[in-house]
Design a protein that fits this description.
GO biological process, one term: coenzyme A biosynthetic process
Number of domains: 3
CATH architecture of the largest domain: 2-Layer Sandwich
CATH topology of the largest domain: Nucleotidyltransferase, domain 5
Structural class: alpha+beta
Pathway: Cofactor biosynthesis; coenzyme A biosynthesis; CoA from (R)-pantothenate: step 1/5
CATH superfamily of the largest domain: ATPase, nucleotide binding domain
Strand content: 25-35%
Subcellular location: Cytoplasm
InterPro entries: ATPase_NBD, Type_II_PanK
Helix content: 25-40%
Largest sheet: 8 strands, mixed
Pfam family, one: Fumble
């Protein structure tokens, strides 16, 4: 018998990142007639608003395909919803919280990510809400382990690409994380953090890089004039990075055999752009693709060195940079497999960027 929570609804977890705010909301489905009667109008209106819309304002999105149904949390059964919006739209979210009298229901909101610290006073002054701030890496790990444990029983949360070095036969396959430790967890958001995880409570941040999803989007905005992540990815999917990058074969005329470097490997990202003639011949799509390949390869390269150093063979990539970004996932899978001669497995998770928010929700329900 699971313990009942005596925490009042609504149940939220929030992760306020440098680019996106991620929100998870638990919608109870087992409300008794008695509860229904006692439920205040504010709570009903929040539930109706969140569950009957898939878009909020101009930029808020509910990722319907990620919704987890018939979940039991703290003895209550319901659905878990996943919502995101750009961090620069946080004031509009706070205004909505104020309009819907959110503070009359809840005095504290569990939040993680840098924004939980940066915007704490805005939550207080604009929405009369207290934030319970949580460490983002603790939340991330707790969220990954929890979602993997509840989803795997139904369909697989974790997956990998089989035959990543063969584009014609590269297929996505489910993977069970049943005995996950040790694992390298690579969180690709605006920047990148790499964690070596030995158990749920024993992990260290090995290193990171400032060249992450924010770098990809920032450079694409500068180089191509695009303004959204989706637009940048769409351009990248139509471009050819080899027109922008200098390859080993551009320098050697073929492979650099002595050190096993194939002619197709990138010797210098954007290296062809020092030539005016080549600059004039590339498209914005080529530039977007080269930016994606540069950032992704760099993350792959640093990850590989960390895996070698820490003696860990399983690498799990998460974070919103991978949302709708199959190009980067396949590149990472390819790079890990090729350069490690099949020793390293690149794993991915369906709920990419939401694990921190899930970890915050779990802390609300089971305060440590």
């Amino acid at each position: 018998m699971m313990l009942q929570c005596n925490i009042a609804f609504p149940w939220f977890g929030m992760d306020i990142g440098g680019t996106l705010v991620k929100l998870v909301y638990f919608e109870p489905k087992d409300i008794t007639a008695e509860e229904e009667q006692e439920e205040v109008e504010n709570l009903k209106s929040i539930r109706r608003y969140l569950t009957s819309n898939t878009a909020y304002g101009k930029t808020g999105i509910r990722d319907v395909h990620l919704e987890l149904q018939d979940l039991t949390l703290c003895g209550r059964s319901g659905n878990l919803h996943f919502i995101r919006f750009p961090t620069h739209d946080l004031p509009a979210f706070l205004q909505m919280g104020r309009n819907k009298h959110f503070s009359s229901l809840h005095t504290t909101l569990c939040a993680t990510g840098g924004g939980a610290y940066k915007f704490e006073s805005d939550f207080r002054t604009m929405a009369d809400l207290q934030l319970h701030k949580l460490d983002e890496l603790d939340c991330l790990i707790r969220g990954v382990l929890y979602i993997d444990s509840v989803v795997s029983s139904v369909s697989s949360e974790c997956y990998y690409f089989e035959n990543p070095t063969d584009p014609d036969h590269c297929v996505q396959r489910p993977y069970t994380l049943e005995n996950p430790y040790p694992l390298l967890l690579v969180n690709i958001g605006s920047g990148v953090s790499i964690l070596a995880v030995y158990s749920e409570n024993n992990y260290k941040r090995v290193t990171g890089t400032s060249l992450g999803g924010g770098t990809f989007l920032g450079l694409c905005c500068l180089l191509t004039g695009c303004s959204t992540f989706e637009e940048a990815l769409e351009m990248a999917s139509q471009g050819e990075s080899t027109r922008v990058d200098k390859l080993v074969r551009d320098i050697y005329g073929g492979d650099y055999e002595r050190f096993g470097l194939p002619g197709w490997a990138v010797a210098s990202s954007f290296g062809n752009m020092m030539s005016k003639e080549k600059r004039d011949s590339v498209s914005k799509e080529d530039l977007a693709r080269a930016t994606l390949v540069t950032i992704t390869n760099n993350i792959g390269s640093i990850t590989r060195m960390c895996a070698l150093n820490e003696n860990i063979e399983r690498v799990v990539f998460v974070g919103n940079f991978l949302r709708v970004n199959t190009l980067s996932m396949k590149l990472l899978a390819y790079a890990m497999d090729y350069w490690s001669k099949g020793q390293l497995k690149a794993l991915f998770m369906r709920h990419e960027g939401y694990f921190g928010a899930v970890g915050a929700l779990l802390e609300l329900l089971h305060p440590s």
